[in-house]
Amino acid sequence: MGIFGFRFKKEKPLPWPKAAEGGDIVPPALLTTAIYDDMDVEITLNLLRAYGIPTDKRWQRKTHGVDIFVPETMLDEARDLLAAIPEEENV
After folding, report:
1. What CATH topology corresponds to 27-84?
2. DSSP character for 5?
3. Most buried residue, 22, 27, 32, 52, by CB count within 10 Å?
4. Beta bridge partners of 35
5. Spatial separation of the C-alpha atoms in residues 85 and 9, rounded to whole Å
6. What rounded mean pLDDT belongs to the chain?
7. DSSP per residue over 8-61, as a string?
8. Between 2 and 56, whose confidence is greater?
9. Is residue 66 within 8 Å of 41, Cβ to Cβ?
10. Are 79 and 36 in contact (CB under 8 A)?
11. What is the pLDDT of residue 64?
């Protein structure tokens, strides 16, 4: 049991895609660097994962930031998702 009786489910990371020609994994590409804002990093990672884009993060000691990586083949799609402007719903 977790804190106060709650259990926290550990998320399984999405599988990193493999390159077609050699069977090796697609190289990671730097999508963005977030500095000092852990919540921003988690929101970004969850958004990308929700759209099926695998992610990886690496902490940078020098800048105290987090580099977010995605597969090279999905970099443009990930950039488009982060640049999208949410539409307002008319009720």
Report:
1. Alpha-Beta Plaits (3.30.70)
2. G
3. 32
4. 65
5. 31
6. 81
7. PPPPPPPPPPB-TTTSPBPPEEEEEEEES-HHHHHHHHHHHHHTT---EEEEET
8. 56
9. yes
10. no
11. 75
pLDDT at 34 over 70: yes
Q: What tokens appear for 81 in the block?
A: 């998702």
Sequence letter at residue 76: D
How high is the pLDDT of residue 86? Answer: 78
Domain ranges for the chain = 27-84
How does strand 56-60 pair with strand 65-71?
antiparallel
**Residue reference for tokens 């990930």:** 78
Residue 79: per-residue pLDDT: 94
Question: Cα(17)–Cα(23) distance, rounded to whole angstroms?
Answer: 9
SS3 6: coil
Judge contact between 6 and 47, C-beta under 8 A. Answer: no
What residue type is assigned to position 74 of the chain?
A: M
Task: Count CB neighbours of 46 within 10 A.
Answer: 11
